[in-house]
Amino acid sequence: MALRARVLVLVVLATLASTVPAAAFHAEPTAHIFGGTSPASEADAPWSVLVEVATGVQPELCSGSLIDAAHVLTAAHCVYSTLAPRALSSFTVIAGATDLTGPVAPPTGQVRRVGGWRAHPAYTARGDVDLVILTVSPAFDVSGAAVRPIAIVAPGQGPGPGVRVKLYGWGNESPGVVGREHALDQTLLRPSACASGVPSLLCGRADGGAACVGDSGGGLVSAGGTPVLVGVERLVLDSSCARPAANGYTDLSTPQVASWLAHAATVPIPPRTKGLATIVGSGVAGEPLTCRAPLWSGSSRFRYEFVDVASGVVLATGGSTYTPTVHDVDRGVSCVSIASSAGGTTEAAAANGIVVRAAVLADPALQLFISAEHALTFGDASSDFIYLHVTLRDRAGEGKVVLSKIVTDADAVDLSHVRPGAYRLCAAFAGNIRYRAGRACRRLIARASVTDLVRLMRPGRRSGRRVVRLLVDPPLVGRRVTFHWRLSRCRAQRCGPARTVRRGITLMSNTALHVPSARNDERVELSARLAKASVRGVPYAAGVWRAVLR
User: DSSP string covering 185-218, please?
Assistant: First the structure.
């Protein structure tokens, strides 16, 4: 089978000293689910059955689930020997019992022979989907509480990682404890935690136990509420079974499995691969890591997930690259290649992980914030900076230094004393073991009138007409403002009555105002009433803006 090189498939089952007669079952020394608990009564899991296979020397055991009165769902490797089917006469199915250390007494216990089976075509073709449906003869009596079928999960509604589930089986529990059914609570992991590149797979793990030989074909059911069959036990990762280990299950909700259960004419084939994903990169914070996919067959869509090796937390999903930050330093990062098609979704995990290490980064990621109280603070990344040199220059940007101060990352710089106006605020970082030196700047508008948000540029010409340019700061951008042009004749420093020209305009960050035609001896003034506004929660008073052009 395709998984022999990577996992232990539960083909070798628990053995018994004698075969099962039609009316009674006597178990010889064997054991059960490691770390599990025994069901209180047959009614706790009335769908759970024992499947015995007579091999001619010693019988083998499997577990299974009753999905209707005449059919049992179990693992295909229970009925095949190296992909060759065993004889129907070698199978016996027992339902309605949890303790078979003594005779099975009807009406609680029922014993049936197998009249036929139907294996998933992917198992006989590639050893992929380890499922078979046994047809028992005669059908079980399901009128009582001890023997009842279980519903199968709806297509596409299977549980995901982190969900609690429960396994029922007749496998090893502990040495010397024999002949009883046990249950084991588990938490689902991502499929690639059990096997990489295997389609239609669920992976579960319990802190206090594991499935073992004899649990093959056992039903994995939802925990809480009415139980629903979500998976069938197919593989374990630890042959000793003596310590907690992950167990693999066939996922019954995938298109590849659900279509077969529904007797569809064709069964879609999901992506599969025998390879592993690979993660490559320098491992330096700030430099990208790349996930390389293996060679997939039967796939049409791809995506990638980058995960924390220790916790399994997904750090990023989508593209094939992930750039770790300073917050990822000392974290192990691995990746998963995920391929999808009409048959389902399959994962291939990387066998390796890369531990992110600190390095000198080009961008120190300085973040400058100004609070409503007019105090300067820094972003979360500043905890790595230690010392910052803060400077505040006047409106020209490169003009007079108004403030110069060395601060630590925990400091807040008080800017409330700065006179009203517009400034350029910069924080410079000298560098340390993680970062190279860096500098971040932003524009600061001190508390004032909105008239401080407008700057007049020198008049010029455009298309033969005189224009005045205004540089406008938020929050005035996008506001509708009416400008008043006053033109008055002046002689010998004295001006006569003015004529007024009103023009409305929507302010942009760089606004052009056309100057009305004026005689050479006329004085030109520009004024506007500006409404109050706020920026970053700081209020600005309304004001009248005036400028004399000549």
Answer: EEEEE-GGGT-SS-SSEEEEEBTTBB--TT-TTP
Q: How far apart are CA 449 and CA 530, in angstroms?
A: 9
Domain final residue, candidates 314, 333, 355: 355
Q: Could you tell me which of 295, 290, 265, 271 has the C-alpha nearest to residue 279? A: 290
- In angstroms, the CA 130 to CA 124 distance is 9
Question: Which residue's entry shows tokens 């060679």?
Answer: 295
Same domain, 429 and 538: no
For residue 253, give Cα distances in angstroms to 135, 201, 452. 22, 10, 65
Take residue 200 and report the two structure tokens written for it.
């239609």
Pick from 119, 127, 123: nearest CA to 3: 127
Residue positions counted in the chain: 550
CB atoms within 10 A of CB 145: 13
> Does residue 488 sit within a domain?
yes
Which of 271, 147, 263, 133 is CA-nearest to residue 200?
271
Q: What is the CATH number of the domain that holds 433?
A: 2.60.40
Beta-carbon count within 10 A of 271 CB: 24
**pLDDT tens-digit readout, 120-152:** 999 876 778 999 999 999 999 999 899 999 999
Domain with 377, as residue range(s), is: 368-445
Q: Which is nearest to 86 in space by CA: 62, 65, 109? A: 62
Enumerate residues 6+ apart whose C-beta is below 8 A from 255: 155, 156, 268, 270, 342, 343, 344
Contact 279, 290 (CB under 8 A): yes
Whether residue 316 lies inside any domain: the answer is: yes
> pLDDT, tens digit, for every residue of 348-371?
999 989 999 876 544 556 666 666
Burial class (CB in 10 A: 0-12, 13-18, 19+), 388: buried
Strand-pairing partners, residue 389, are 406, 428
The number of folded domains in the chain is 4
Pair (530, 409) in one structural domain: no
Closest of 82, 29, 85, 22 to residue 52, by C-alpha: 22
| Residues 170 and 206 reside in one and the same domain | yes
Cα four-point dihedral sign 254, 255, 257, 259: positive
Rounded-to-integer distance, Cα 146 and Cα 94, Å: 12
Helices of type H across 116-249: 121-126
Find out whether 216 and 159 touch, Cβ atoms under 8 Å. no
Q: How crowded is the C-beta side of 59, counted as CA atoms within 13 Å?
A: 24
For residue 105, which of 12, 10, 23, 208 has the smallest C-alpha distance?
A: 23
The model's pLDDT over 217-231, given as tens digits with 9 standing for 90+, comes to: 999 999 888 999 999
Cis bond before residue 46 (omega within 30° of 0): no
> Which element (helix H / strand E) includes 259?
helix 255-261
pTM of the model: 0.61
Among candidate residues 204, 232, 176, the one with its CA nearest the CA of residue 62: 232
